[in-house]
């Protein structure tokens, strides 16, 4: 296999993430190297930081960590959780449920608040858990659960925790840029997003916003729990970035180029509000289209559905692998199936970043309908497209 | 205006040509320069030539001329037509009709054979004209008329002319690679195609196949009509390419890179037969979809329709500019309107090169349906997609 | 041979043109297609035009013709010369000498003014010729003769011709952007440049500036000589661009992207004066370096040397092919040899566009010295680099 | 600041890493996304793995970890070191010295073996330390110390440790691909390299080879020291890659594309031996050139010098920032200064990956000489280039 494998790259990828990236991002990824210890590069990093602060709506710096989002999420536990800390973990999907292991990995006493994966956690459930566990130090949850395409009410939960002095760790990997996130106003403590979801760049970075409380807690935990302060997992080396504009590692230069291009796209379209509105519109159109086509959405109600991905129940009698195989092989469109128990029961259509557009929604609905028809299960795509257009 | 105008580039272009190019072609266009007077570059050119010969199905070299296709077509007249030559010119569309001026420009006595622009010329009409004008030296026609999306029966016409000793000049700018062309078998004399149509590369080159008879005629006309033999319009400087592997000009290096990538794509998918089959399938799917949606195709019957573009009659009461405006602005899909008398009466959807795919056809049908619905003219897109899938 | 032939692309090309292009240009070449019949594209073309007017220092439009520079030069003769016109042709090199054939091709009665190819034409020689041929209609010459790396005094010649009412046709293919060109002030009539020389883009276009007199003459010649007005060679179709902002052909979209990036580079570095100063500095540094290394420049004196390329006499006993072979194979640096009678007697180092930089001059001198040393002919590269730095 | 900042990218970067990347790598970085959970992507990963195994000369899988090399190095301590383990740490430079903190961070009892930073550790010193500390579990060292451009005798050290049952952790971030590494033959246990050094790709990944012993030790330490087995720092999640071809994280897709292109370049040039030979030649040429120019190499003797970077003592009276400033601003060549105590005393020239070529060495020597001359400190560049060519 040589590196000229263009034929293997799908023409369009509307998966649960990554999706096809913006052409402008890809063009930026191909730029030659600058050196990271130059004024020009620091200026670029500061410009990225200014845009990221707008994106998270925070006055604080957002750490541009090199490594997959799961790294940023583990960093949150490494720095905020010490043995014996009671941590409320909201589980409304696989990623949320899995985070309990991370919290336990750092000594957290985890209180699980679980709901079925086709719905989201209510603020009342959160209040109940906080009432029952006034000793809780940390509450963690996933904002946008891509495995089930659901979304938790981030603002309500974080404000409640802030008012009670409980630190919040929010996995908004597929949320930031596509759903509303108001880091400072809502008093969020740690919020992690990725570059490859609603930003439309490529995978490879964790973007981590930290409140002042989170920084304080980081220092305390480092001492109390004896956390190695120079670890790649520690936030502390990043103080040099916050305080001295000195990036503590060799940054992933190409990924920074791509990220800057992605942020430029958002700023050019009118800023983060415009980006969120576009994602919301794509989500509503997709849902309306799916329903009008006579298919079922997996998540129980609209208020619980994510802006970046839509989960569709696989109709009875349809093999989801054959369905996705037709979409892939005959139509060059790659979407995702379900994870875990949902394998075979769900298909998931990503509309995030570059693919959060009316055109891509039409393509996805049209191809899905065509593939279903090929499998002997025609749907009313006319109603679907009409509903999508009017959503 | 700076050079970073990505936002102005349409997400998808299915116009009458150029259409969006293959990503692999665009990647090749960005390569650094080689020098054209090196063995490596000549090897590249020979490799392009070998692929082009497969594409036109000829044993002769196909001239890779730098300049728009109209240049290659003018070269045909410059080299083959001398004052007083009777030239039968088949006009089944704007391009065909316009070629009469070129023939006259070089002294040709043009006999026009015109048909309405929503049909194509029949072989009987050709025979009739040839019967009436046994003195004819040249017969010229457009294989695939993109302005009206029609196609003339190239094989029949060329074989008839060959049998009668009449030279043929064929504008197959949007035909080669998408419709069957058998240069040697059919005895074609000059056939011109472009890089930006069914090859899916970018505009900038004319690819010109010449028969041995055409080369002979070129030499004779140069002498008889005193044509300047070193002109950019003359085929004669290209003898150095044919005879000595020496390209007579500085070739457009980036365009050669792009063309080679486009040819690689065709060879990788199985060769020219596979490419034609793909274009034919896209055309059939588009037509079936348009009809099933209750819209009218402009061209009178399927046998007369082009493989690379489909013309749809604008429904009564619809302003085609508003329709295309919605497709552009809201859906990021750029298609073409009609030319000349057909302005406002036609829309044209290109399915050529990169866009000759099932996915792109679904996108085009879906977006067209959505835009029509927005204008209060809903169509049965379900039937359309079903018909497209089954075509 | 597949399209993945990166290994065959020289690491650095400092030939007589094309040279290695700017990375920013190559990045622009890889952009997806826009449609040329859109407002956005016309805006791009107008922006290119505004920059080109700055480059040529003219208020008139500069025609962005698709095809190698030789096409633009032939257009000049096609449109300005009619049978019987006396044309003074200055021949100070192969390109200049060759243009006599073009002028004759269109009926010109050519008066040749020749000088040895290692010098340039003096203004006195021009005056003498004009005195001897007061009937001359046209005077043609090459501004920068890349085959011998010499330069003619364009301003003096054109002003003299303007004052005498003689039309000038100037081949400044490797001049514009690297040497001073003042189209309007000097009263030039036709000036042609290429995209692949001092602009640092890729080959494929002819950029043609026309005076009002040239436009008038074009109209007259079209009538008098019966030139086909719709020919690809005619300037007349371009009136639609000049008068209506309508590009008369499908433009080479990628090449326009690349050209715009090249023009942006010039405007970003401070405009055409800065670009010329950089080329002049690179030329002076190269000459100083070559001389200090004990080698001989081919052209007789500095005032006659080109800014875009330097010709060096091959030292006795050195086989230029072996020399260039070592530079190519061992050092990844491609330069040019001599043409015609100069084959084997010259090597030519291009310093134009991207390669007109102090770094590239150091690289060229250093590699040349190393290759000569390998052939047993050491030179004083220390003196060479010192002289280059101080030039 | 927009994303179009090409002007800020240095024309050539020969720093201590990253250096300018291969154009072929940059082209690959700009490819569109594939999904990582597809057969095609797994095939790509397996192909990368096969090449990496050739590169490290091991039968084991080399983990393609997402994150800077420092992450891979910390992983080694996380997985192999438990509290109380005696770890011999060889410090022949800043990176080596700094690793003691990492070992201590995971409870290691560190025995430092230090040598001045302008030399390397001898095998006798290693034997002595091993003799004095027969209880040692681990020995760690840096193969190629980029801060001082020195190299430790990796083969000797690792074989000695293997024979004594001491695990080795080798930082070969700037070694692998440029210097000989025989992972299996020498019995290395953990060896980490980066993508942005001798491979000539971009920064962003850690490539980690593990012996069977290292895997065993990882399992034991996880249990004994209670290391969190699902941590991003743990090797254990990577068992799914080793055992099941399942990448445990979302891989950095663009970086994988770039890495594959870099590996293709190595395989195309003849494999890892050819790559090492090229780096060795570049290093020898640079050293010979520097010495012949009358400058001093920082490292005490050739056998201790690195193949990927050369440290030059800043001559008396020269301000290294002014020197590098001239190289940057006037010649577009970016090199590195010294770190820590060596700031102002050293300049470092990287010749790794794309810049490990004869042309780039000539450029670096020539530009350095020119900049020194500008500062009033001329050097004998003629002797330098001659020596470089003959090295």
UniProtKB/TrEMBL annotation, chains A, B, C, D:
<dbReference type="InterPro" id="IPR000192">
    <property type="entry name" value="Aminotrans_V_dom"/>
</dbReference>
<keyword id="KW-0663">Pyridoxal phosphate</keyword>
<dbReference type="InterPro" id="IPR015421">
    <property type="entry name" value="PyrdxlP-dep_Trfase_major"/>
</dbReference>
<dbReference type="InterPro" id="IPR024169">
    <property type="entry name" value="SP_NH2Trfase/AEP_transaminase"/>
</dbReference>
<dbReference type="GO" id="GO:0019265">
    <property type="term" value="P:glycine biosynthetic process, by transamination of glyoxylate"/>
</dbReference>
<keyword id="KW-0808">Transferase</keyword>
<dbReference type="GO" id="GO:0004760">
    <property type="term" value="F:L-serine-pyruvate transaminase activity"/>
</dbReference>
<dbReference type="Pfam" id="PF00266">
    <property type="entry name" value="Aminotran_5"/>
</dbReference>
<feature type="modified residue" description="N6-(pyridoxal phosphate)lysine">
    <location>
        <position position="197"/>
    </location>
</feature>
<keyword id="KW-0032">Aminotransferase</keyword>
<comment type="similarity">
    <text>Belongs to the class-V pyridoxal-phosphate-dependent aminotransferase family.</text>
</comment>
<protein>
    <submittedName>
        <fullName>Alanine--glyoxylate aminotransferase</fullName>
    </submittedName>
</protein>
<dbReference type="InterPro" id="IPR015422">
    <property type="entry name" value="PyrdxlP-dep_Trfase_small"/>
</dbReference>
<feature type="binding site">
    <location>
        <position position="348"/>
    </location>
    <ligand>
        <name>substrate</name>
    </ligand>
</feature>
<dbReference type="InterPro" id="IPR015424">
    <property type="entry name" value="PyrdxlP-dep_Trfase"/>
</dbReference>
<dbReference type="GO" id="GO:0008453">
    <property type="term" value="F:alanine-glyoxylate transaminase activity"/>
</dbReference>
<feature type="domain" description="Aminotransferase class V">
    <location>
        <begin position="27"/>
        <end position="338"/>
    </location>
</feature>
